[in-house]
Amino acid sequence: MRILLIEDDPVLGDGLATGLRQSGFAVDWLKDGESAVAAMQSEKFDLTVLDLGLPRLSGMEVLKRLRARGDAMPVLVLTARDAIRDKIAGLDCGADDYLVKPVDLEELAARIRALLRRAAGRAEPMLRHGAIALDPAGRRVEVDGRPVELSAREYAVLHALLANPGRVMSRSQLEQSIYGWNEEPDSNALEVHIHHLRRKFGADLIKTLRGVGYTIPKA
Ligand code: CA
């Protein structure tokens, strides 16, 4: 899952980016409102964490422009303590949730998981496919109740495919869900992860559509 983080405070931004990566998200971090608007127009993210006090263009303005374009991407806004008006204004401008600074990283990750679940129209926290069950909170995968060991990137590929059942994910969509901008994938890495997943879950789980991408067909 690919998160766009927009926070101008270098220390806080670094802490949030690091914490979210440790929670298994691919994170792209920007520090001002104008680059955020540009990135939102040119790239696809699963969710945005948006600070409201930003240079060049306020977070509220970024949010208004996103919603004015009809983009329904989930947005969680970060507000300063004592700024109750910001919470109300943010929600009324189209934010889906808010957190007050200082942010607890575990709470942030849990709220992000809840927003992603809701955006996908799911109430059930686990992702299931046949005998496979993936738990996004614990980042665990089981087959028939038995745990399966996965690398962080194998997990990210499997999560992206299971979260989009029946949808064909292009190579670049899958790469974006496992790498942020500052981590360049090596050229055959995705194929290697897919190969390992097939070895662990059976050759039939992930279908290749040559020249198009990969999919896990609906069970
Ligand atoms: Ca700020």
Please outline what is shown here:
It is built from eight helices and eleven strands. It is of the alpha/beta class and 219 residues long.
Would you give an account of this structure?
The protein folds into 2 domains: 2-119, Rossmann fold, CATH 3.40.50.2300; 127-215, Winged helix-like DNA-binding domain superfamily/Winged helix DNA-binding domain (Arc Repressor Mutant, subunit A). It has 8 helices and 11 strands. The protein has helices at 10-22, 33-42, 59-68, 84-92, 105-119, 152-162, 171-178, 189-201; strands spanning 2-6, 26-30, 47-51, 75-79, 97-100, 127-129, 132-135, 140-143, 146-147, 207-209, 213-215. A 5-stranded parallel sheet has the order 2-1-3-4-5, with helices on both faces. Strands 6-7-8-9 form a 4-stranded antiparallel sheet, covered by helices on one side. It has a two-stranded antiparallel sheet with strand order 10-11. Helix 2 packs parallel to helix 3, helix 6 (152-162) packs across helix 7 (171-178) and helix 6 crosses helix 8 (189-201). The radius of gyration is 18 Å and the shape is globular. The mean pLDDT is 93. Bound molecules: calcium ion. Residues 8-9, 51, 53-54 line the site of calcium ion.
Q: Which percent bin holds the helix content?
A: 40-55%
Adjacency order of strands in the biggest sheet? 2-1-3-4-5
Which whole number gives the mean pLDDT? 93
Give the biggest beta sheet.
Answer: 5 strands, parallel
Order of helices and strands: EHEHEHEHEHEEEEHHHEE
The CATH H-level homologous superfamily of the largest domain: Response regulator
Number of discrete domains: 2
Total helices: the number is: 8
- Between the first and last Cα atoms, what is the distance in angstroms? 21 Å
Going by CATH, the architecture of the largest domain would be 3-Layer(aba) Sandwich
Hetero groups in this structure are: calcium ion
